[in-house]
Amino acid sequence: MIKKQSRKVTDKLLSRLQKVECPDTTFFGERFPIVMKRGNGMFVHDIDKNRYLDFTACFGVLALGHRPKVTIQAIRKQCSQLIHGMGDVHPTLPKIKLLEILAEISPFKNAKSLLGQSGGDAIENALKTAMLATNRSRFLSFAGGYHGLQFAPLTLNHREEFTKGFESWIKDKSVSLPFPYFPSEISSDNIILDPNMLKKKHHLFSPEEVLELLEKELKKKEFAALVLEPYQGRGGKRGFSPDFMKNCQTLCKKYGTLVIFDEIYTGFGRTGKMFALEHYNVIPDLLCVGKAMGGGLPISACIGDIMDVWEKSKGEARQTQTFLGHPLACSVAYETIKYIQKYLPTFQKELINIDNAFFKFKENMELKALSQKFPFEIRGKGFMKGIWFYSQEEAFCVSLMETLLENGFIVLPEGPRADVLSLTPPLIANAGQFNKILNSIVSILENK
């Protein structure tokens, strides 16, 4: 790993970037960002020839790492035949094969899909489908959820950082429910968290309070769907309990509201299962997927067995895009899904060793008395972990991210207060690599 980071070329290129890019896109700090040049497996090299272990998988997209053989081979094969097509007019074989495998692995008996190019597209397609199915036009979501920044998904977002300037568009289109806390966040390792502190500082409510608020809204019979991430990505790796999830589904069914699972981040092995819904034994009405599905190419899907609420096309499709069912993206997605299907048991075996690495991390923090100075909780599932420093000030993990970058690790801060350090590496990550970053975190905290 790098010892002293060179930024000579990086700083020059970032100066050029700032002159030509919308200022509300890339975050610039004193030591951030890098300019990525090439990647292989778990590793990324920047323009100044520094090497990093990638613990983001580039927003969870690169489930098989950077430039895996399966992706390169699929791209080469499809490029030799057809790169672009006419997805809603003249379909291609890759599109048909992709839709078939999505139906096969989905939890639905008669699954049909709407393809898109991004996670936000999948959410927008789900919202449209829910409106057609229920004849309702409002939605429910949970605080901390991130479902995309296009106008329709943006209505589900209630973080001012994302909605500022667009309030007039968002107004009255959705209701945000507070996120619930669960026993693991009240008492863990003999540390008891105060429910009043959780509510006041972190805006976390008891499951009973949240369910009561949910039913109060559902009784209005105005809501087409409840949209949620089984484990929140940008929200800080927060998850629900199986009982809570089942209660949500029961209440929604009672009042005629659909349940939409946003598995754009959690799908395709990220949580140790093909889909995170398997942890809850709950089947939603609609399932949105993306990110890892495309193997690095932009593609997404909204899947369900209620797609027949859309009328059969009469020649002018109501739901299409120029790049819908892009043959190159469909081909790579198909091969990526097949590969994850085949090797998921292997990834699952390594998770036992990875979970043991986190156990050793906890022991190391306690041994060095860092658990008292920096109390924390481990959140998430599988290859989707978050270290929640719940007693620290806002943006605590921003500086931690920057220091880790200097030490050769690419990570992201998450949560409404940026007090969660997110670790979502490719599924090919091993316990040894987790040990490296966890030991580095301990060393950094020792010097704080």
TrEMBL record:
Protein name as it appears in the record: Aminotransferase class III-fold pyridoxal phosphate-dependent enzyme
Organism the protein comes from: Silvanigrella paludirubra
Record-level Gene Ontology MF annotations: identical protein binding; pyridoxal phosphate binding; transaminase activity
InterPro entries per record: Aminotrans_3, Aminotrans_3_PPA_site, Class-III_PLP-dep_AT, PyrdxlP-dep_Trfase, PyrdxlP-dep_Trfase_major, PyrdxlP-dep_Trfase_small
Cited PROSITE patterns: AA_TRANSFER_CLASS_3 (PS00600)
UniProt cofactor(s): pyridoxal 5'-phosphate
UniProt keyword list: Aminotransferase, Pyridoxal phosphate, Transferase
Family statement drawn from the similarity comment of this UniProt entry: Belongs to the class-III pyridoxal-phosphate-dependent aminotransferase family.
Record CDD domains: OAT_like
The keyword Transferase is assigned to this record: yes
